[in-house]
## 1
Amino acid sequence: MGEAIVITSGKGGVGKTTTTANIGTGLALMDKKVCLIDTDIGLRNLDVVMGLENRIIYDIVDVIEERCKLKQALIKDKRFDYLSLLPAAQTSDKSAVTEEGMRKIVGELKQEYDYVIIDCPAGIEQGFKNAIAGADKAIVVTTPEKSSVRDADRIVGLLEQESIDPPLLVINRIRNHMMKNGDMIEIDDIVQILSIDLIGIVVDDDDVIKASNSGEPVALQPNSKASIAYRNIARRILGETVPLQSLEDEKGVFQKVKKFLGIRA
Amino acid sequence: MLDKKQFITIKGTKEGLTLFVDDSCTFEHALNELREKIHASRPKHDEPVVSVKVKLGNRYVQEEQKEILRKIIAEDERFTIDSIVSDVVRRDEALQWQEASEVKTVNRIIRSGQMLEVTGDLLLIGDVNPGGKVVSTGNIYIMGRLNGIAHAGINGDKQAFITASYMKPSQLRIADYISRAPDYESDGVYMECGLIDEEQDKIVIDRLQVLSHKSEISGFGRRMQNG
């Protein structure tokens, strides 16, 4: 029996879809059977980020309205055998899916897969309620901006009323130089306000945009910072203890020696 | 026989007059005598207005009856009513008082979009995040960070106050007073309280020590005084 994790944020544009794609890819890289579900009916993106847009035949609304079997609607990833995507419909709207329908689909997928990752739409309306309906766990994505943290706080409040484990936090799009200057909210402050466990921090990396435009999740790249961050999140989901990535850029030899000698830089 | 007995006794004190109303006669009898007495002992027009305390002993009066008493005494605007005190309270009123004087302890985080409302005093163990709101009819004590809105004394109790371990509220409200955070970015304060400064007629934030000068902190005492 697998586990269903919903990726949510409240605010739009903080990187829910990117996070979903990359956590899914990260788990698949570690030989887990993963199914991604896009619940953003009418504004589907996950298929584009995964580079699977051309392969869509049926979608989640077709499954709910019983025009096809669940298996028929699943798209197998081109890179991994055990990574699938259940795409959202582009022509309907959020009311085409019900909470009951979601629970049924997620329940069925959990029999087959180790992890079911659900990409939640922005907002707190029906789409959000549908997305969290079948979930066992939740990951809240936020950026170090006031508005985004505020919305994340609201979402955490709503999630607390559901029968879901306490949500985990991903802080996305961290710009190191701004954080140093105090122009962005610090990670500690965000964690203090939201008071939920942090599961990963991801720096703002140009590679993420490049990768999503080419339909190859950034987690597949060996060395980029964001890629390592997403793979670390996947490892933490599997229960490994991985230290948080350092935000600092590569240090000079002199500083390394200082650090080695235990002198505070 | 009945006529001989005095139902109303008037005593003069430094603060004004105290009217003792006998609690064994009917309310009508007492009212009749009160009218006469008030008429007879009315001060002259050049004398100052006298404040009157009414003590009813073991007599229970309804709100309407209190209104009648007020009307009779304050008729000529030579007397003002300071208080009407009865030794008896009704059961449901007493229960209401008890509820209003209890401290409700809540242990959670009030997040954006959430609102916590209690009757009586509120002891919140946890933060009030930006966009969250706590409301009480009495005082609010927050063991945590107050970053949202706190509204104490929502039914108009101006004596109510708000304390927090760390205070950086977006708004403080006490009774019908509202104050908000300044437009510029500012640091919060630790272990302080917000209360109404009657001289400045606005909400001020001050050290917790100033609360020791307040006569009544417990909600029950306040209720006893204010009726």
## 2
Amino acid sequence: MSQIDFRRIDVDQYDPDSFISKEDLTPPCKPVSAAEQQQVATEIRGAISRGEAKAALPIALDFAPYGGDDKVKDAHLKSVIEVLSATKSAEIPSVVKALNKEQQDVLIKYLYKAMGSPQGQSQGVGAILLAWYEKTVDITGQGAVVRYMSDRRTV
Amino acid sequence: MESFRLGTTAIADHSFNKDHTFVAVARENNVTLLQRANGKIRPVPGKAGTLRFHDKTVTGVDISCDGRIVTCSQDRNATVWELQQDGTWKPFLVVLRINRAATTVRWSPDGSKFAVGSGARIIAVCYFEAENDWWISKHIKKPIRSTITSVAWHPNNVLLAAGSTDGHARVFSGYIKGVDAKPAPTAWGERLPFQHLCGEFANKTYAWVHDVAFSPSGNSLAYVSHDSSITVVYPSAPDAPPKAVINLDTSFQPFRSLVWTTEDQIVAGGYDCYPIIFGGSQSGWKQTGAIDDPKKNKKNSGPASQFDEDGMPTGSALNMFRAMDLKGTTQQPNDDDLLTIHQSPIVTLRPLDEEGGRVTTISSTGGDGQLVIYRV
């Protein structure tokens, strides 16, 4: 192991030409405020209560708060999980097919994020997420999964 | 389609010479030379068959139009090899001046210079200096923010495209005074001093760019990146936004390499282990086909091997006893073989034969030690 120890040393700190920062590697994203998220969340909740979860999903996915802070992102995750839970399992394929490519990619991102968060692991939600995941990947192929992993914009 | 098993270790890069009579294969710390004749590929016998110089993994190899070989390695060096009268290859010093691994190397179309990409956020453009009998380099630094994964030359011998792990594909001028004639203006730029940035493109994801390539005319640029997408850029005029940037998100796994076969067709290969064909123009691109599609292949009959890693010819009986000896099995091919010829991702695709201005065959190598020649 001694041979690879040198890899742990941050040699860049001695390089005067080093000018890389995290911002350089992240695409520019529009900042998103908590108030904007609140507004969308209300809209989504309204649609769900009218029994229109199908219509709420594109709204939720288009809003993807790439430029928001962690609080905004978590709040929006909650909204997305509400929509996913409100959709009937049999309707999932037709709902996913109606989404555009960009929305499908965002959906995969949210499915992964949800599975990794406490909200997604609560009672009953896990099974719903897995059903969505299976049916979505059937339609999108592996490309969407790779895009979730390689996209530097996170939800 | 022809496939050749050249061993079991991964092949980082390969390059055929101009008349396709031999191929150089970068594997581990060496470059192996193999002859191609009568549909077979055999190692060049004796010492002339291996170029030994590097002491870390060789990452790139390229053969120029005049027959010189250049290699580059993670040991931060590049070497130019010239064939001597007695049939041996003599290494020439290249002064790269980089402090990280060299990742890729490509000759310019006329063979007067080559570009080396590196992990030091530098592209070294190298040219021969006769007084000292060595190849020296000029560095392109800004605005590269991360490792260079690929370089590609424009047919005019001056413009250079590079893909990087910072998510950008860039077009630079690689103009070297005294080596290059003044280039004619193109849509990429008019005045082209060395290191001039002619274009900078990124996907919305900023995912790693794996490979870049100019179209045969040089009037458009394509790149593939780790978000499984392929992007084609059509420049309009110098210092103006491009006419069109078409970013096609595919449902495949990411592509590692791409080849233009005509102005309106690209073949890309990568983690799906088989090449996929795209067609299009300024108004849009889409998938038009695939080669060696596993959905159409029922059961792979296994790669047609010419000789094994020890250079022994492999007859079926020999294979059978060897398999019994090593694996305790007589079953061939293996049940968990992929339904494609390549059994692990394609790392390098190269154009091979051309007919009437279109590429008709392409060669590929990858992690499984196979060289495959596909008919497009």
